[in-house]
Amino acid sequence: MIALVDCNNFYASCERVFNPAIRAKPVVVLSNNDGCVIARSAESKELGIRMGEPYFMVKKLVKQHGIEVFSSNYTLYGDMSNRVMKTLAEFTPNLEVYSIDESFLDLGHFYGKDLTQYAWQIKNTVRNWTGIPVGIGVAQTKTLAKIANRLAKKSTKANGVLVLQEPKHIKAALQRTEVADIWGIGRQHAKFLKSRNICTAYDLAQQPDAWVKKNMTVVGLRMVKELQGEACLELEEVPPAKKNICTSRSFGNPVKELTALEEATALYASKCAYKLRKQGSCTSAITVFITTNSFADTKQYYNSKTIQLPSPVNSDLHLIQYATFALRSIYREGYIYKKCGVIVSELVPENTIQLGLFSGADTGKHRDLMQALDGLNQKYGQATVKSAAQGSSKSDWFLKSEHVSPCYTTRLSDVIIAKL
Question: How many whole angstroms separate alpha carbon 250 and alpha carbon 264?
């Protein structure tokens, strides 16, 4: 049996944990530069605020209903996610962290245990230890667990926990689930299936294997097998290494000068380098792109430059050097830039690097330097030590975060002080 544990309105719930005054109020969390709504509490959903809606379009509604607004605080959300996942690991030796707010738990080794009672124990423990409310769906396969989780959140009777074991309950759950709501079904496939009068998950589960494979490939066939109760998707207890990494942000204010673009590019290159080291990889190619605002009534320009590196690296200093060179080759004066980004690709494991014959990279020295830098930043806070090329968080191009909350769990100065 597989359990899917999904945090309810995760970003909004994180903000509520440390601010009891807003626990009964509608809450929205905004994207980078406070652009769009990316998370909503249940109260905000009821008021009609849609996911991805631009913030300026809901400002009137925010003021009218006293909606609490927060800029995205990924440092806080990441740490709270880690706390939730560590709590879940107390209940099973086999766990897959699927996303920042979802995990699959293997409960197949609990013979003779009341899984409904155990799921409630998990739900209550996560709430008590972290303050985050979760919904739990339990079934024979990952896909069925997804369906159970979705119904658990919608059903007043289930109240956040649903275990699908009995064939009649599984059938009823499949009949209540539209094909568009099945995990892995995209918009085009949903449209195709409905045109053939396949409207529910139950309808899809009744289709012949040959027809499914022909029209939905082997991936679709695995999905149908999962709906039928045959496990085809194993738990990924160790996440696979990423094949490429991108760091990109829109600017808080439009940028004209090359100096500001260099600072932003250096920052993003440094972030890519850190992510590479974290997963034990090095990159053999780096791409830098810049673009103007396609929605603005100004001259438009987009360009990118890819550089093949002499040998794979993951050092901040190397990547900043190559990224700056690439940026200077595509920068053009007279344009107002809205965004830039850095992509590292052709990744290889750090422990299998083969240096070029004429490589001048002192990998040992850079490795020791980066270990020291990462250690200091981990101990004293993000960006405590950084390259001067990255500029300052007070730069005009830096992200807008007018409604950002404190980093309650990762910054000593932001820790809540209890007063008697």
Answer: 10
